[in-house]
Amino acid sequence: MVRLGFIIGFIALIGALLSGLAAYRVHDQELIVDGIAMARAIDVHASLVQDRLTERELLARVASGLFRAPSVIKANMLQPLRASIYAFKTDFVVASWIARLQPGELEAARKDLASEKFPNPSIRNFDDKPLDRQSLDRPVDVLMDVEPRNAATGAFPGRSYSLHPVLGPMFARAMTAGKPVASDPMPLLRSDGPVGVVLAAPVLPDGAAQPAGFVTFSYELAPLMLANDDLSLFSVALKDPNSADQELVATDRDHVGSRIVAPDAPPPSMVRTVSFGDRDWSLAYYAKNNAMMRARQTAAIVAAIGLALTGIVCGLFGYVAYNNLRLSREIQVRIGFERRLTAVIDELNHRVKNILAVIQSIVTRTLRHGADIDVARDLLIGRIHAMSNVVTLLSESQWQGVKLKGLFEARAVPHAERIAVSGPDIVVSARAAQSLSLLFFELASHSDEGLSLVGKHPHITAHWQVTGDEPEMTFHFRWEEFNTSAATRREDSDFGLILLDRVAPEALGGAAKRYFTDVSYVYELTAPMETVVDMTERDRSEQFSAPVRPPR
């Protein structure tokens, strides 16, 4: 048998080594090929994006160079450019002329805007609110002309964008740099419009040191930088220049949305940087297909073929080994079952001895010398019924515990119909259930069976609650018999007093007290919840009741 096993192992080892080597080579080759293809496709895309951006920046430079008019306070400054700019690229959303006006030139600008029939020729803020001219002490950037002129763009002329949170800083940078500058991504035309960028080119008249205004072109971000072929190997995203943990991505309909990049998210396959508007833009490329997964799948196929061939050779030998292993496991299961059966029998013997000891104590103390035989018989039968009831409940739950309310059944507790039970529906351990069952019977059996001083049977309440936080939770039980007194209530027996004052509290690790009030008899019991709900005993019962499983 040892020689047979050695031969099977040697053949399997050689086959596994050859299969693993072939799979490893295939895996590396697949990764190399996918990496080269991905890098080339990304370089081509980044180059096309850069060419597209360069063309649009060149358009802005050419447009700004055509302005040589001595006056810039005109609402038709783009008229000479309208034919020229359409000869270059027509994919801009809107082109505009932004004049840099002194406070004294605003009235002249308003009149010129009115002459061009714009809907609102007044000079106002970018948010269409009135402009406070009295507080102006420096030039303002006012939109004087737009292309194309339509219902969407006709309301923009006359607005000052010096205080705009995105365009204002862009104009300031363009004036300082003296060359075209791009803005941060922003909605175009309206607050819910397409996301795009604005390219502003300063216009320097002949002999002037400061720009007289700016020619701007607005482009949608999706076709400008994020355009991509559906069949490409990657998807492209733009790193948000205002947030390091956000990216701008284009949807199927060329809508641009923002997404948060989680710290534990997989990094992009590659990052490329393009220049546009005197700033760098980072394009993140994410592979659409998991090259590592595909390489692993291919390698797995190769390895599976090799292992299948090895399996065919080792099949007959493995069949013999499998039968031997199955027989060994069956023997181990039988041994484990016998050990479990022995443990269960020992546990059952232990619990039966405990129950017999309790019953022996009940009989001995109930039938003590000098006791009234009729009274003792009733008490003995009731106590044994209480024990029988709790054992039945424990057997039904496979000794996993008993719900506390279940101990107040009529067959186990006298006068159960007169007991108002309240409290959380907790499950007590087997040991606690035995003690509490005898305790409840003892309390109920000595309640007043005749008429009380006010002519009514006693009304009995049994209430419990749990206070505190784990692991120091405390169980509080209170038994109260109304309409009774020390004169009308049957006197507790010696066994009852021992059970109430010592046996039940000690079994639960707590303390008890009993007393009479003006209108009732009260018994209170306090114990820690860890003894009332014994998780160690429950876990041991679950272990014994669990089915025997073969070892792995």
TrEMBL record:
<dbReference type="InterPro" id="IPR006189">
    <property type="entry name" value="CHASE_dom"/>
</dbReference>
<feature type="domain" description="CHASE">
    <location>
        <begin position="142"/>
        <end position="232"/>
    </location>
</feature>
<dbReference type="Pfam" id="PF07536">
    <property type="entry name" value="HWE_HK"/>
</dbReference>
<dbReference type="GO" id="GO:0004673">
    <property type="term" value="F:protein histidine kinase activity"/>
</dbReference>
<keyword id="KW-0067">ATP-binding</keyword>
<dbReference type="Pfam" id="PF03924">
    <property type="entry name" value="CHASE"/>
</dbReference>
<keyword id="KW-1133">Transmembrane helix</keyword>
<protein>
    <recommendedName>
        <fullName>histidine kinase</fullName>
        <ecNumber>2.7.13.3</ecNumber>
    </recommendedName>
</protein>
<keyword id="KW-0812">Transmembrane</keyword>
<dbReference type="InterPro" id="IPR011102">
    <property type="entry name" value="Sig_transdc_His_kinase_HWE"/>
</dbReference>
<keyword id="KW-0808">Transferase</keyword>
<feature type="transmembrane region" description="Helical">
    <location>
        <begin position="298"/>
        <end position="322"/>
    </location>
</feature>
<keyword id="KW-0418">Kinase</keyword>
<keyword id="KW-0472">Membrane</keyword>
<keyword id="KW-0597">Phosphoprotein</keyword>
<dbReference type="GO" id="GO:0005524">
    <property type="term" value="F:ATP binding"/>
</dbReference>
<keyword id="KW-0547">Nucleotide-binding</keyword>
<feature type="transmembrane region" description="Helical">
    <location>
        <begin position="6"/>
        <end position="24"/>
    </location>
</feature>
